Amino acid sequence: MSIYVFLLTLSFYTSKGNNIDINPTKIDVIVEKDSTDKPMLLVPPMPSFKGDLQKWLRKNTRRPEAADTIEGRVIVNFLVQKDGRISDIKILKGLHPLLDAEAIRLIRSMPRWNPALDIWTLKPKDERFTIAVVFKKRDKK
Known about the structure:
three-stranded antiparallel sheet, two-stranded antiparallel sheet, alpha+beta, 3 helices, cell membrane, TonB family domain protein, energy transducer activity, TonB-dependent_transducer, transmembrane helix, about 25% helix, TolA/TonB C-terminal domain
């Protein structure tokens, strides 16, 4: 009896597989030339540094001599205001008090950034940003 049920079930599934009906749907695309809608951005524009951020950080970092042998990253979070100024600097993950202070000095001395834009209005807005300031051991000369 169980073999009969098995064969009946098997024949049901195999017969269904042969009757697959594929009907591709036609899609019409209509483009309006006089549309007044603004294009919507899929990803909101984030704040961005004007130029090469890593190059600027390397050029302007003044590593304290007392922390010459310490190597690692300081994770810094700050607010990029709608006019591009940097404010409200916070250390999220420190490394050493001297290197943390240098990371804050470095961020505070940055030139103005390109601010973030609101996704709907495309107007500048305040936005927080996080970067890692990397400190490597100084080569002995």
